[in-house]
Design a protein that fits this description.
Helices cover about 20% and strands about 20% of the residues. It is an alpha+beta fold and about 625 residues long. Helix 2 packs across helix 7, helix 5 packs across helix 6 and helix 10 crosses helix 11. It is globular.
Length: about 625
């Protein structure tokens, strides 16, 4: 990294570095820029690696020592199934760590770039110019390996681009190369996280030589009964549905959605395991399951469950029964890492497809992070997972979804939607590598919430996480005083550069200066307790009333969380849902049933996680 006394780089120096590397290795500059954009959007991330150990603008991977110690659902804290009718399913006893041995070649491109460019590996990790040079050397080598000349025409580099994806199947390599050439045709321009302005002029006339793909000798992916848009490369890697000992079975439930129940949510996860381990885990009947996995390097998708069936992934049975789970590859022990553009784009295409198929609104009350799923009851709140965390770029993700987060109301509206500048917004987090130690500076889509309009004021309290009444912390996995991009809250008060929202039953203040706002004004339905009620209970699931359960189906407790929604407070409504419970505790599906009651609930944005209140307890108005 540059020394503390080093001068500020010229704002166009990164652009020049692409030009120099392209000329040195005889790679068309547009190809080099487009490949880099699809990996990192030209960001350097301050030398920090991606979720799969990729460094710098070219995402050169060095994952040999970056494997995680425990996969996502194997840490013993969260019951991924989240159903009180069954024993907890935490994943304990399944594969506990990635397999020994060398990571695949797609996760070791940095060492190859070092050999080809003659630059030290340490330099490739930290120096953007060296990193770009190493990436250009890899592209030039891929062109030579294909037996093709170093043409100045970008159209002649389709095969090399496809090979550089690291994909081992034809469909994924083609999807990646098509994305790169879409970037070349449309052009891009942006200011990077280091303040560099980079531009790729559009070249709409380029027609790539797609016939080069056949010569790469890649496998055909196992298509099977996949349910994916044609715009992503998707293969079938089925999760098992089988019995094993003592009446237990795994690793999902058969269902008939959306005939039996509506699908209302899509849950975004990260795996905390590498790709091969992720696939091994989801094929283990003693483990847990989700519908899709997405690979970091190239956006490849594997589907594991039919969409009609229910996965065990969110830690809340009500949400599991009404959701689709997407696991995104990532296996670094440090959460202060970043995700590739290839994976963001593939994920967004899949989510658009699912939203259209099931009529799911493209908003943050229905496109949830795992960290937004509520605990089922008070005892489960502390164990709920916190991925994908504060470094997932929700603003960019929603741009790719075609629903950019923009103002929908004038100044001083009664609702705000969180929307900081991801690159410039760098709150201090701790505990990425060592408890209490500050994480590396990094862009974030989250803002921190205080008890008063001052950065020195204590953070707000989450009595579910901290029953003793202490304030939340700056820990990277502490969601107790955090509002995330896209989440909408009712405004409680405004003072100068600060805005207060209603959050977990209290006023929560965040810095929101008019010239550099961290939220946009919005419209939306809000609710508050009905007249005469001092407070109403808040729930982590929307279960039916006791009288709705037929004989043979045990009544599930409608147990409130420790929070209260107080008179005079308002919260943004995400939707209205009937009380429902999917009874499916056995391998034999003949006794399964959906219990649906008369009691209805509203989903609300209550804190960092969503929650539910009974419709009979509240009144709804326009915010």
């Amino acid at each position: 990294m540059p020394s503390a006394t080093a001068g500020t780089p010229e704002p166009d120096s990164l652009q020049r570095q692409f030009a120099v590397a392209a000329e040195r290795h005889h790679v068309p500059q547009s190809v080099l820029l487009a490949v880099s954009y699809l990996q990192s959007r030209w960001d350097g991330h301050g030398g920090a690696p991606s979720v799969t150990g990729g460094y710098g603008p070219m995402h050169l991977t060095d994952a040999v020592t970056a494997l995680a110690s425990a996969p996502h659902h194997a840490d013993g804290t969260e019951d991924a199934r989240g159903d009180d009718a069954r024993a907890p399913r935490t994943g304990v006893g399944a594969v506990a760590s990635p397999p020994a041995g060398e990571p695949p070649a797609r996760l070791r491109t940095l060492e190859q770039a070092a050999r080809l460019s003659g630059r030290p590996a340490a330099e490739l990790r930290t120096d953007p110019a060296a990193n770009i040079d190493g990436g250009a050397a890899l592209l030039a080598e891929a062109q030579r390996a294909a037996g093709l000349p170093a043409s100045a025409d970008p159209a002649d580099w389709y095969g090399a681009v496809a090979r550089s994806s690291g994909a081992d199947d034809t469909a994924t390599a083609a999807a990646y190369a098509d994305d790169v050439f879409d970037v070349i045709r449309s052009g891009q321009s942006r200011t990077t996280d280091s303040g560099q302005r980079v531009t790729l002029a559009p070249d709409p006339a380029v027609v790539p030589a797609t016939g080069q793909l056949a010569a790469l000798g890649l496998r055909d992916a196992a298509k099977g009964p996949v349910e994916c848009p044609e715009t992503v490369a998707c293969e079938w890697v089925p999760a098992p549905y089988e019995e094993f000992g003592d009446g237990d079975y795994g690793n999902h439930d058969k269902a008939d959605r959306p005939v039996s129940q509506s699908v209302d949510y899509i849950v975004i996860h990260d795996t905390e395991a590498d790709w091969d381990t992720t696939l091994k885990l989801v094929q283990d009947p003693t483990y847990v399951s989700w519908q899709y996995s997405l690979r970091s390097s190239d956006g490849h998708v594997a589907q594991h469950l039919a969409l009609k069936d229910v996965g065990w992934h969110a830690g809340n049975w009500f949400v599991n029964a009404k959701s689709v789970g997407l696991e995104h590859e990532g296996f670094l022990t440090s959460p202060d890492s970043w995700y590739t553009e290839a994976m963001y784009r593939s994920s967004a295409r899949l989510v658009r497809y699912l939203a259209q198929r099931f009529g799911i609104p493209l908003d943050r009350q229905h496109i949830l992070g795992h960290d937004n799923v509520p605990g089922t009851v008070t005892s489960t709140i502390k164990g709920m997972h916190t991925d994908p965390g504060p470094y997932w770029d929700w603003a960019h993700y929603f741009q790719l979804l075609g629903r950019p987060i923009t103002p929908s109301a004038g100044p001083d509206a009664g609702v705000v939607t969180i929307r900081p500048d991801y690159t410039a917004n760098r709150p201090v987090y701790t505990g990425c590598t060592t408890a209490g130690v500050a994480c590396a500076p990094h862009g974030s889509g989250a803002v921190r919430l205080h008890t008063a309009p001052s950065a020195d004021a204590p953070l707000v309290k989450d009595i579910g996480l901290y029953p003793g009444g202490q304030e939340a912390t700056t820990g990277v996995n502490d969601t107790g005083a955090r509002a995330s991009t896209g989440q909408s809250f009712a405004v409680a008060e405004r003072q100068g550069d600060w805005t207060a929202v209603w959050y977990l039953g209290q006023k929560a203040w965040f810095h929101n200066p008019p010239k550099e706002p961290t939220a946009v004004d919005a419209r939306g339905l809000v609710l508050t307790p009905k007249e005469g009620l001092a407070s109403v209970p808040v729930y982590g699931r929307a279960y039916p009333e006791a009288s709705a359960y037929p004989a043979g189906v045990p009544v599930q407790a409608v147990s409130p969380l420790p929070y209260r929604l107080l008179a005079g407070q308002t919260y943004v409504v995400g939707g209205r849902t009937p009380g429902e419970y999917l009874f499916a505790p056995t391998f034999d599906t003949t006794g399964h049933a959906v219990v649906r009651g008369q009691e209805e609930y509203y989903e609300i944005q209550f804190g960092h996680r969503v929650a539910f209140v009974k419709a009979a307890d509240v009144r709804v108005s326009q915010g």
